[in-house]
Specification:
The chain has 402 residues and is an alpha/beta fold. Among the domains are: 11-100 and 360-369, no CATH class; 211-284, 2-Layer Sandwich (Alpha-Beta Plaits), CATH 3.30.70.1020. Helix content is 30%, strand content 17%. It has twelve helices and 14 strands. Strand 2 (152-155), helix 7 and strand 3 (173-176) form a beta-alpha-beta unit. Bound molecules: ligand L263DTV3. Ligand L263DTV3 binds at residues 118-121, 126-128, 130, 133, 156-158, 236, 238, 243, 245, 247, 276-279, 281, 317, 319. Its EC number is 3.1.3.12.
Length: 402
């Protein structure tokens, strides 16, 4: 098991807790030193002497962000020289979806955008208690705005009931249990694509792992029993899959815990084990994943085999890679990885964080600290809505409903 993520605290913490091996970090050592010396993504500590002084010039004040004439996302407003320094290989391979928003918009031009988003770590910040991974009211509003303009689905490892209790938006499509429990909008006024035809299920429903329910329940009981002696370990029942959390387990106990989990799973050859963000994920061994769920939803919406559709998938975890991979294979759509660190990924773009409320110190400037806004999922969603409304003023009004 690996310490592959950190809750963003401070620069020293980031440098010290850089990811281990799970998403085999492309040049992890390089990333570490790069971050420590303030490189790649501009996350490092102060390097006073090497930061060019620009007399009389200040970065826009944070309070001005988003106001007329000021960029909403500062990193892309960096002077050309400094920006060039930030642009190393990783950034080129997975540029910021915000910094490259014009490219995203160009790809979306004339196409029907369909939005897919993961929940934990994408729409809600990673927290220690999985039962308290609440979504902010601002993020909920942003997702609601997106869902008014584009068909929108949440694709998550959580069980449907739990994710719905966090999100509470009845107009969305939901694919819970890593895509093994799919439901259409329960709202009487969901967004339906303009080409929606009778026969395309309005209440999309699919449970490809239904027959595994008794096995999952049995394995759940076995795992709870086996891991109860490990302080901090926690087993979460996500209906068609299980999660064994080790975020609150002492690092010395990670390996013994993994052994306990494997020991239980030896009695359940029909289940498979993978690893997420300080969590062991147990799922039925069927050929189904978030990628398949996205394909299924596209088909159900009548968007299969259409070149004028642009699926956009935003996710932060390993299981989201199946969706990125699927889009890449189709040669259609945009994958956006949410990560503070460079990672091996099949996504094309990156964002740093779910929300925009965290700020980082970039460098000393005129004796004052410069703060940068982290390119966030929420900011990206705002931009997308803004772009769509600007292009089609009719989108300001509620779209066609059925
Ligand atoms: O597909 P997702 O929506 O990203 O769900 C994946 C797992 O997310 C949750 O665990 C993660 O978030 C927790 C709350 O922030 C955190 O405590 C945990 O360490 C993370 O792994 C969820 O609890 C799992 O059931 C999901 O499988």
């Amino acid at each position: 098991m690996t310490n592959q993520d950190v809750v963003f605290q401070d620069m020293a913490g980031i440098a010290a807790a850089l990811p281990g091996a799970l998403f085999a970090c492309r040049g992890a050592a390089g990333a570490v030193s790069s971050l420590r010396r303030g490189g790649a993504y501009g996350l490092g500590g102060p390097r006073r002497r090497r930061v060019p002084r620009r007399a009389g010039r200040r970065w826009p004040d944070l309070h001005q962000l988003g106001r007329r004439g000021y960029p909403r996302v500062l990193p892309d407003a960096l002077p050309r020289r400094r920006r060039a320094r930030r642009v190393d290989g990783e950034l080129l391979r997975h540029p910021s979806a915000l910094g490259s928003f014009d490219d995203v918009a160009a790809a979306a031009k004339g196409k029907k955008v369909v939005m897919f988003m993961d929940y934990d770590g994408t729409l809600s910040p990673i927290v220690t208690d999985p039962d308290r991974a609440f979504m902010s009211a601002e993020m909920r509003a942003a997702v609601r705005d997106v869902a008014k303009l584009f068909p929108t689905a949440l694709v998550t490892g959580r069980c449907l009931e739990k994710v719905y209790s966090f999100v509470g938006l009845s107009e969305l499509y939901y694919a819970g249990s890593h895509g093994m429990d799919i439901k259409g909008p329960s709202s009487s006024k969901p967004f339906l694509p303009p080409n929606f035809q009778e026969g395309n299920s309005k209440t999309v429903l699919l449970q490809p792992a239904r027959e595994f329910l008794p096995v999952i329940d049995k394995a759940y009981r076995g795992l709870v029993d086996k891991t109860k002696a490990t302080p901090g370990a926690r087993v979460e029942n996500n209906k068609f899959c299980l999660s064994v959390h080790f975020r609150c387990v002492d690092e010395k106990r990670w390996s013994p815990l993994a052994e306990q989990v494997k020991a239980v799973l030896r009695d359940f050859p029909e289940l498979k084990l993978s690893e997420g963000r300080k969590v062991l994920e147990i799922r039925p061994s069927i050929m189904w994943d978030k990628g398949r769920a996205v394909e299924f939803l596209l088909k159900s919406l009548g968007f299969d085999d259409r070149s004028d559709v642009l699926p956009v998938y935003i996710g932060d975890d390993r299981t989201d890679e199946d969706a990125f991979k699927m889009l890449r294979k189709r040669g259609q759509g945009i994958g956006i990885l949410v990560s503070k660190f460079p990672k091996e990924t099949d996504a094309s773009y990156s964002l740093k964080d779910p929300t925009e409320v965290q700020y980082i110190y970039l460098a000393w400037h005129n004796e004052s600290l410069t703060k940068l806004l982290i390119p966030s999922v929420m900011e990206f969603l705002h931009q997308l809505v803004h772009w769509k409304r600007r292009r089609s003023p009719s989108a300001m009004r509620r779209p066609r409903v059925q």
